[in-house]
Amino acid sequence: MYTIGQVAKRYALSRSTLLYYDRIGLLRPSGRSAADYRLYSARDLKRMDRIVLFRSAGLPLEAIAGLLEQEEDQLDRALEGRLAAINDEIQHLRGQQQVILKILENEGAAKHTRVLSKDTWVGMLRAAGLDEDGMRNWHVEFERTSPEGHQDFLESIGIDGAEIEQIREWSRT
Questions:
Q1: How far is the C-alpha of 28 from the C-alpha of 31, rounded, in Å?
Q2: Does any domain span residue 73?
Q3: Which helix (H) or strand (E) holds 3?
Q4: In terms of domains, do 49 and 23 share one?
Q5: Number of domains in the chain
């Protein structure tokens, strides 16, 4: 059995966090000492491992409480939902990033971001020795192996929706 202090140290959490988890029913200790201190079992620690894993995935405590009681297929659906939400957030943030760069109209600002422009990317492909056919083949392979990733990449380099659709269309033919 492990004391609350040992569990807190093991997971780099505060004692008050573990007390809160107990209060909301997320992680209840399996036992109590003679002095009425909380004691956690190996099974409790396995549950805590899952809580930490789900927190690192960005899931809120309320969702984690439900997931801990779910069957595997329900867990997969919940995590797939979280992944879709993250993808939406990333797309939204990329759009904000592009707007800010346009407002700044400052090439120096772009160097301090993780944003590549279409021109920069095409220049890198050409410098690597790709001609028009090579670039087309690159797009065809990207579209074939990861259509969603291809879409995300094209958005990330600031290409507008109409041009993205054209690129993806000729990549499929």
A1: 9
A2: no
A3: strand 2-3
A4: yes
A5: 2
What phi and psi, each to the nearest 5 degrees, are found at residue 26? -75, -40
Examine the domain organization and report whether 58 and 87 are in the same domain. Answer: no
| Burial class of residue 79 in the structure, from the number of CB atoms within 10 Å of its CB (0-12 exposed, 13-18 middle, 19+ buried) | middle
For 79-127, the pLDDT digits (tens) are: 888 888 888 888 888 878 778 877 777 666 666 666 777 888 899 999 9
Quick one: tokens of 22? 């107990």
| Residue 44 and residue 108 share a domain | no
How many angstroms separate the CA atoms of 88 and 155, rounded?
12
User: What's the pTM?
Assistant: 0.60
Largest CA-CA distance found in the chain, in angstroms, rounded: 77
Identify any residues that bridge with 12 across adjacent strands, giving them in sequence order.
none
Residues 41 and 62 reside in one and the same domain: yes
Q: Rounded to an integer, what distance in angstroms lies between the CA atom of residue 53 and that of residue 111?
A: 34
- Last residue in a domain, options 13, 38, 67: 67
What DSSP string runs through 15-52? HHHHHHHHHTTSS--SEE-TT--EEE-HHHHHHHHHHH
User: What average pLDDT is seen over the chain?
Assistant: 88
Same domain for 63 and 146, yes or no, is no
